[in-house]
Amino acid sequence: MYQNSRWNFVGVLWILLFLPGAVLADEGTMNGADTAWILTSTALVLFMTLPGLALFYGGLVRTRNVLSVLMQCFAIAGVSSILWLLFAYSLAFGDGNAFIGDFSKVMMADVDRDSVVGTIPESLFMLFQMTFAVITPALVIGGFAERMKFSAMLIFSALWLVLVYAPVTHWVWGGGWLGKMGLYDFAGGTVVHITAGVAALVAAVVLGPRKGFGSAAIMPHNMTMTVTGAGMLWVGWFGFNGGSALAADGNAAMAMLVTHISAATGALTWMFIEWKKFGKPSALGTVTGMVAGLGTITPASGFVGPGGALIIGLLAGFVCFNATQYLKQVLKIDDSLDVFPVHGVGGMLGTLLAGVFSSVSLGVFSGYGFAEGIGSMGGQIYVQLIGIIATVVFTAVVTWGVLKVVDALVGLRVSEDQEIEGLDIALHEERGYNLQ
Q1: Average pLDDT of the chain to the nearest whole number
Q2: Residue 217 gets which letter from DSSP?
């Protein structure tokens, strides 16, 4: 009996020493399981941009512009990563004040292998957040696709990351005023989707429509590429939302579940609306509905249950479909790849609905106790509205200013001849396809 107890003790000691995921970590102590999950989530979120978003957007433009879109996604990934390291991470997550961080974390100052955020290394937290900083300006590409100069795109994306994305991130996740008010934004309804959607809308208005918009159909050149990219986005979104729990726990698991439910419901809703309205369902509509469902559930994913996700996905498909039709057919705005009606409108809708379906009073459609709120559904909805309005106004004003500065520096739009020739040849001297 004594010998068995001794071997049991040795076994437990071996587990504690060599299986770090099994160690029960307190706040401020690194946890192996949490670290492994966020490492995986980080790879998944980067996978959403490269290759997911690049392929999704690349297939939606015309043949002569496919490489330009792929190039823009890759270039933004590089620029955003370097700026995040240099000082943007510090502006977003440094102590600072209620509106912007300080420079205490420039070049990861005072951050070493043992520095911890929650139960994961701060280096990993910084890298995970970097992938969000990569995909957000990349989403904006859809608003000006096929007509912005490459140099203008680089300068705009860099300035926008510093002047829009970093401050809003600090407001919500970095200890800023919206976070202190109690805003629910689990994985980026305001920080990612509203900022990207509004910026794309402003860019589309400032640059004007593509040549031929409104007089001829501008069709995607490769739906196979788009559907492939959409599938990668769906898979990668598990890291986007599930990873935002910053732990390998039930909250992460529920975030992944509701993410999937909303995506599936959004896809089917958009598909059936098209089927009824136009007589046939389309692959483009189905994958766009999926993205709408994903974007709309994002801010609510850590606060709602599966029933709430079902309703959110249904509303995402319906509302975002109609927003797309209204923007292009009524307002005649050439948001080339529907960034505002899908991401912007979806982000606003999801941020608002997070205040509704987080309530534990809604039974099967509730958050099942994941979110206690600030005391009442009405009070939480008020905070959500404040967050939406502040993000929309700030993003619109600063984005407009950045575009005007860039226009004065290098000009925003390619020439008419370059647009007709295509940006692949005109700007990069390359072709996406060599069919001769």
Answers
A1: 91
A2: -
What are the C-alpha distances in Å from 37 to residues 34, 113, 246, 248? 5, 18, 8, 6
Query: Residue 302, exposed/middle/buried by CB under 10 A (0-12, 13-18, 19+)?
Result: buried
29-428: what fold? Ammonium transporter fold (1.10.3430)
- In the chain, DSSP finds a helix count (H) and a strand count (E) of 19, 2
* Identity at 335, one-letter amino acid code: D
What SS3 state is found at 373? coil
pLDDT tens readout for residues 236-271: 999 999 999 999 999 999 999 999 999 999 999 999
Tokens describing residue 222: 């490769």
The rounded distance, in Å, linking the Cα atoms of 233 and 256 is: 13
Instruction: Kindly tell me the burial class for residue 115, based on how many C-beta atoms sit within 10 Å of its own C-beta (0-12, 13-18, 19 or more).
Output: middle
Secondary structure element (H or E) that encloses residue 120, with its range: strand 120-121
Instruction: Please state, in angstroms and rounded to a whole number, the distance separating the CA atoms of residues 340 and 342.
Output: 6
Residue 391: which residues within 8 A CB-CB, separation 6 or more? 168, 171, 190, 194, 195, 198
- For 275-333, the pLDDT digits (tens) are 999 999 999 999 999 999 999 999 999 999 999 999 999 999 999 999 999 999 999 99
* Residue that is written with structure tokens 């200013």 in the block: 401
For the segment 221-241, the average pLDDT, to the nearest whole number, is 98
Would you call the peptide bond into 167 cis, given omega within 30 degrees of 0 as the criterion? Answer: no
Contact 350, 293 (CB under 8 A): no
pLDDT of residue 365: 64
Structure confidence at residue 127 (pLDDT): 98
What is the Cα–Cα distance from 37 to 25, expressed in whole angstroms?
15
